[in-house]
Amino acid sequence: MRTTAAVLRELGGRWEVEEVELDPPGPGEVLVEIAASGLCHSDEHLVTGDLPVAFPMVGGHEGAGRVLEAGPGVTEVEVGDPVVMTFLPSCGRCSYCVRGWTSLCNDGAGATLGPQLDGTYRFHSRGADVGQMCLLGTFARHTVVPVKSVVTIDEGFPLHLAALVGCGVTTGFGSAVRSAELRAGDACVVIGIGGVGANAVQGARVAGCRYVVAVDPVRFKRETALKLGATHVAGSMDEAWNLVSQLTRGQLADAAILCTGVAEGSYLQPALQLVGKKGRVVVTALGHPDEETASLSLLDLTLYEKQIRGALFGSSNGQHDVPRLLEMANLGMLELQELITREYALEDINQGFDDMRHGRNIRGLIRF
Ligand SMILES: NC(=O)c1ccc[n+]([C@@H]2O[C@H](COP(=O)([O-])OP(=O)(O)OC[C@H]3O[C@@H](n4cnc5c(N)ncnc54)[C@H](O)[C@@H]3O)[C@@H](O)[C@H]2O)c1
Ligand SMILES: [Zn+2]
Ligand SMILES: [Zn+2]
Fold first, then answer.
1. What are the structural domain ranges in the chain?
2. Which atom of ligand 1 is least distant from the CA of 218?
3. From ligand 1's centre to the CA of 263, what distance in Å?
4. Is the pLDDT reported for residue 52 higher than 90?
5. Of the candidates 143, 137, 149, which has an alpha carbon nearest to the alpha carbon of residue 56?
6. pLDDT in the model for residue 113
7. What pLDDT score was predicted for residue 195?
8. Which atom of ligand 1 is nearest to the CA of 311?
9. Is the pTM of this model over 0.90?
10. Which of 358, 347, 353 is CA-nearest to residue 141?
11. Class for domain 2-166+335-367, per CATH?
12. For residue 194, which ligand has an atom nearest its CA?
């Protein structure tokens, strides 16, 4: 079939909205009509080269829609089902999936490289194969994705809100609740209040933290963080240190969650200084692929038993966490609408990324 997609053709390029050819779903795949797609900073990493990929590529890895057609052998979903597309597949059978670490599923290993799980391509344009960001490519009216990447949701849940749970909501919430292991009464610092950090704030609040300190240089981000459950805000990690030190009488935070647009090696020591004994620094933001240095006090790690942890998809488990987060939204425990600062037509996607770069959005959302 023919459909419309936003394609990135080169490093540093603009998203080109164009007519593309889309193959029917193969075995284990589904054709999805997309209702909405969030603009996550990880797609910006395709432009800057912080996520190395092969071009051309249909971007987008945070979306929701409806199953239009199921490929051979698909029994998990039915035509017409509303689904969230998660940016990592889970096979349910690999060594990581069976231990409940589905965000580390072996099928996710090459998810940003472009081709589908069988090594072939579903999108084609201008005589060439076109890859799909995270096996999805949600910057398109239609896409074909592995059924391993979709989670069926309740009929009636607004699809444009559900879209955000495909990456940002689950990643941020999980980074706080799962990766940072925040508990009632803890103190937490979230650094960087975009679509991911805003949900780390919500996770910390739901976990019952007594202090949730949101750090962002942009005033609008700090104001939104307060609406989402932050108890305090700061414009920088230095400023946050003074605040947290005072609030906790020098005990400092139980966790600091790094959700900045890019993770820099130089952020690690200031983040480590924000946490006290047994404190966790959670690295959710993506660093530069070639950067292998980070400055930090090894003595602090030993003497205070501080820890540094990576978090992929917030160590979440899509089939379990996505429906649960939507239910929490229904119960008023989780804010989704407030996360959407602006909506765009697919044709205006470059405006959406410009707004992200200038700190104007918590999340920008493409609606079809
Ligand atoms: N680990 C995962 O599974 C996963 C999933 C999704 C996104 N990510 C990554 O998470 C990061 C955040 O994504 P996003 O979509 O929320 O980005 P975003 O661009 O929407 O938000 C980033 C925020 O960080 C703020 N910021 C930048 N530098 C800062 C600093 N030094 N101190 C404090 N705040 C600072 C910006 O003002 C902005 O508000 C990105 O690196 C993204 O690639 C990781
Ligand atoms: Zn993302
Ligand atoms: Zn697996």
1. 2-166+335-367, 172-311
2. 37
3. 8
4. no
5. 137
6. 87
7. 98
8. 1
9. yes
10. 347
11. alpha beta
12. 1
